[in-house]
Every structure is written in C-alpha cells, then in structure tokens.
C-alpha cells in the first residue's frame, strides 16, 4: 500500500482529465504545474484538443501513453464512470476524482458512486474522492489543485481532511501562524481510500512529525482504531470531528455524504486510539503548533511567569481543571528571585512580576528550576503604556529580554506563551518567543495544550 500511495504524492507521470480553458475545476492546475516544473511530466485531456500553457491537449484518454502514475479527473459527474473505465484500460492504478455530484446529492448519486468504486476495483485502481481536491506534497511543490506558493514551504505537519476546500484553506491559513505543512490528503466522499490509509502512510513518513485529521464520518471503526493506535505510537495525531450535534450531522450528510453517528462513540474511539481531540478549529491549530514545536511533558508541575496577576489566576484555574499542578519553586530559585525583585513582588507560583522590569532575569532563574516540568509565560503589557518608549527606539527585547535564547535553559521541557493585546504588539512578542515556544491566546488554551503533551 505504501508504494501505491506514493504514486499520489510523488508521481513521475500525471494526467489531467477534463482540463479546461474557462474558470472552474481544472482551469488553474496546468498553470500551477507549469510554475513548479510539473507540466513537463503532465498530459492534458479534453475532447476539444488544442493547447494550454504551451502544452498540447490530447482529445481522449486512449491517446495517453502507458506508465501514467496518477490521473486527476475533473470531468462532469456523468462522465466520470467512462473516464475511470478508460483509465483502467490504460493501466492507471492511482486516481483523484475531484468531480462532485455523487453520494452527497442523494440516492442516485450514491448508486453512481458505488458503481464507480466497483469498476475501479476490477482494474485494481485506488481512488481518492470524489468531491475533493486531492493531495499536496510541499517538499516537491506538487499538488492536484492550485496552492499558494507560500503554503509550499515544507514543514512537519500532515493534514488529512475529509473536506477538500477545508484542506486547501488550512494550507492557505496556517503558514501565517508559523506552521508549515509536509503533505495534505483531502478525501471527499471516501469512495475508496480513507483516513486509515493515510494515517498508516503518514505514520511512516519521515517528513511528518504531527498528523492533523478533519473528520466528518467513519465507515470502518475498528480499522480506524487500529490505524490510530499505530500512528500515535510513533507521532502525535490531532482529530477535529464535525457533526457533533443534530444540525452538524445534517450538514455533513449534505457536504460529503457522511453519516456522523453518535459523538460519544467517536470520543471514546479517539481517546482509546491515543489521539488528541480538538473541540474546534482554534484548538486544532494550537495543538498542531504545540506538538510540532514542543517536547512531551514528563510530569504535571507547571511553572508560570506573568506580568498580569489576573491572567496568572485564570491560568491556575485552567491548570487545575485539566489535572495539572503549579510547581513549588526550589529554595535556590526563590532566593534568586528575592534578591532581584522589588519588595511588593510575592515570590510564589505563578510569579507575577508586573511592571518591575525583571521579566528576563526571573525567566532565567525559573528556566533553571528543577521542580517545574513545563512552563507558561504571559508577557502582556498595555500598548499605551509602552508606545512612547517604542516611539524612541525601544524594542520588546528591552522589556522582556531575549526569550528565544533563554528558551534553551528549559532544555527538554515544553514552554507555552500566552499573548493577548494589541495586534502589532502580539506579532513582535511572537517573534521574540521564536519557534521554540508555542504561542496561544488564552490561559485556558495554554492549559489544554500542555495537558495534551503529558506523557
């Protein structure tokens, strides 16, 4: 199976069936392939023939050469079955069906989809889709749909998304959040290949450190559970499942034809499989950032450094509710802080240094404390209070120290930073934290992602 799935991500020869000169599916793909060096390996098919992006267009599938690794089908729904039959006769074994109009439309569409699946089995062909946008491999700058260039910078996060457009949106969105992608598989109606197949593939993919799954409904629960257990033994898996409510279940049925089922059963299965379940999109992103940048949490004791006593208290409540604890500073750490702190600072955990100006020195001391298993930093400050200083050349580093360099003192312990405030200030603080610290935007989110790291 691994070598077959590789054809989807690393094809030597590809065919686009249903290429078009007018806007719609198939229109922008040749231009994208040309920009990234894939058009030379591609064959375009449309009954009208002609030329697109300087590439001759074949009039029929029968004109394709032998040895096509991957076919991308974007013809109207009523023409898909014939296309699959002709591709099977040409010996094609991997195919992405991007066309919509099947199980998500009702009984007739479901019947047509089943017939296509049966036809593909006769030829030993494996299918992704229909009603999807296929795959992406950032290392090779390859995708079966148009993707923004900035989303093609390789990274450690793989995405399995039942929704094609949602997978594409994540590709567009998360680079701005400091996350980069290894590979994407969008599954659509899951006529054949499903999340279990790609969990198994990404579990062994050396370019992938974290797997994100967006799920609407599952066909084979036992198989998924086995795939989750196998994958989570090797790397973190985060699942976001929609259809948790009657309204959501109705929406998933009309979207990808999925029956969502009883949510508590899914909840138990994900837990048993070792996956972290995200309650919403914000949690999915936060967990992805955390798992891709932080070591595992080896104990429950957390050290907290904050400039806001209120946010330190909120975090303490959140840690309690997730089963984590506040660390007790060692005697050496307490004495070190007392020596540098003004008299109004209470040397406890959370350590609230307020506007004292000792954030960097305190951080250096806390990162060396043997009692904390992980840390949360809350470097927040009202923008109006520092705007005059920034206007005359002061930087965030002058207020909070070189956090990204100090991070090394925490060694193999996770560090989460909670940033909240003026947008530009948040951006500067995130840069100050660097890639070695996971940034979230609420105390509750910090506690949740830390808890997910617990070994």
Structural commentary:
The chain is α/β, with parallel strands linked by helices and 455 residues long. The chain has three domains: 127 residues, 3-Layer(aba) Sandwich (Rossmann fold), CATH 3.40.50; 159 residues, 3-Layer(aba) Sandwich (Rossmann fold); 152 residues, Rossmann fold. The chain is 40% helix and 18% strand. It has 18 helices and 20 strands. Strands 3-4-2-1-5-6-7 form a seven-stranded mixed beta sheet, sandwiched between helices. The chain has a seven-stranded mixed beta sheet with strand order 9-8-11-10-12-13-14, with helices on both faces. The protein is elongated, with a radius of gyration of 26 Å. About 2% of the residues have low confidence.
What's the number of domains? 3
Adjacency order of strands in the biggest sheet: 3-4-2-1-5-6-7
Low confidence ranges: 251-260
Distance between the termini: 31 Å
% residues in beta strands? 15-25%
**In angstroms, what is the radius of gyration?**
26 Å
Descriptive labels:
455 residues, alpha/beta, Rossmann fold, 3 domains, seven-stranded mixed β-sheet
């Amino acid at each position: 199976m691994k070598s077959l799935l590789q054809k989807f991500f690393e094809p030597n020869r590809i065919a686009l069936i249903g290429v078009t000169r007018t806007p719609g599916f198939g229109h922008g793909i040749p231009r994208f392939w040309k920009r990234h060096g894939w058009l030379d390996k591609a064959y375009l098919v449309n009954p009208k023939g002609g030329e697109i992006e300087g590439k001759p267009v074949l009039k029929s599938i029968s004109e394709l050469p032998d040895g096509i690794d991957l076919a991308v089908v974007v013809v109207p729904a009523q023409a898909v079955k014939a296309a699959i039959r002709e591709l099977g006769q040409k010996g094609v074994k991997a195919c992405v069906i991007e066309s919509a109009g099947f199980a998500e439309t009702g009984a007739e569409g479901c019947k047509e989809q089943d017939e296509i699946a049966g036809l593909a089995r006769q030829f030993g062909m494996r299918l992704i889709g229909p009603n999807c946008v296929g795959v992406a491999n950032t290392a090779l700058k390859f995708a079966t749909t148009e993707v923004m260039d900035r989303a093609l910078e390789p990274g450690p996060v793989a995405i399995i998304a039942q929704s094609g457009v949602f997978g594409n949106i994540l590709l567009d969105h998360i680079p701005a959040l400091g996350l980069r992608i290894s590979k994407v598989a969008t599954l659509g109606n899951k006529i054949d290949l499903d999340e279990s197949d790609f969990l198994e593939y990404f579990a062994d993919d050396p370019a992938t450190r974290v797997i994100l799954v967006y799920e609407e409904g599952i066909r084979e629960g036992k198989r998924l559970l086995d795939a989750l257990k196998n994958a989570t033994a090797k790397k973190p898996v985060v699942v976001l499942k929609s259809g948790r409510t009657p309204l959501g279940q109705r929406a998933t049925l009309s979207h990808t034809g999925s029956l969502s089922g009883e949510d508590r059963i899914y909840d138990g299965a994900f837990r048993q499989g070792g996956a972290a379940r995200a309650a919403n999109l914000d949690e999915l992103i936060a967990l992805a950032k955390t798992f891709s940048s932080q070591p595992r949490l080896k104990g429950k004791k957390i050290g907290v450094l904050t400039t806001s006593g209120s946010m330190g208290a909120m975090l303490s409540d959140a840690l309690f509710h997730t089963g984590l604890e506040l660390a007790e500073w060692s005697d050496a750490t307490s004495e070190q802080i007392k020596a540098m702190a003004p008299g109004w600072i209470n040397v406890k955990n959370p350590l609230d240094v307020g506007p004292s100006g000792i954030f960097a020195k305190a951080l250096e001391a806390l990162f060396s404390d043997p009692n904390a298993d992980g840390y949360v930093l809350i470097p927040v400050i009202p923008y109006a209070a520092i705007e005059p200083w920034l206007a005359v050349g002061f930087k965030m580093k002058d207020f909070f120290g070189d956090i990204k360099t100090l991070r090394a003192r925490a060694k193999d312990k996770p560090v989460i930073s909670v940033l909240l405030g003026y947008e530009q200030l948040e951006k500067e603080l995130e840069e100050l934290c660097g890639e070695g610290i996971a940034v979230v935007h609420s105390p509750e989110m910090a506690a949740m992602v830390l808890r997910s790291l617990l070994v």
